[in-house]
Amino acid sequence: MSLEQDILDRDRSREMRWIEENRAAYADQWVAVDGNRLVAAGADAVDVFTAAKRENIDIPFIVHVLSGDSLPFVPGW
């Protein structure tokens, strides 16, 4: 299986649930989550990615967490 297909086939529902449950505590930060476990969090995506790779996570799940009440910004509206 190719790396691309491996990424597409992964079930990330546990990670997404963790983000929803912990959104307020990590708003405006980058987080790396592995299953139900926070691996790293911070303001710099590269630092978070590096920390996840140090934990030997081959394909880290890294997300920039927006606050729960953030509205999308559309220029000109």
Structural features, described:
The chain is of the alpha+beta class and 77 residues long. The protein has one domain (7-64). 35% of the residues lie in helices and 19% in strands. A three-stranded antiparallel beta sheet has the order 2-1-3. The model has no long low-confidence stretch (mean pLDDT 86).
Count of beta strands: 3
Rg over C-alpha atoms, rounded to the nearest angstrom: 14 Å
- For this entry, what is the oligomeric state of its chains? single chain
> Counting H and I runs of at least 4 residues, what is the number of helices?
3
Counting structural domains, the number is 1
Indicate the overall shape. globular
First and last CA, distance: 45 Å
Mean pLDDT score, rounded? 86
Determine the structural class based on helices, strands and strand pairing. alpha+beta
Largest sheet: 3 strands, antiparallel
User: Unreliable runs, pLDDT <50, ≥5 residues?
Assistant: none
**Could you spell the SSE succession in H and E letters?**
HHEEHE
Q: Describe the strand arrangement of the main beta sheet, using strand numbers.
A: 2-1-3
- Give helix % range: 25-40%
The percent range for strand residues is 15-25%
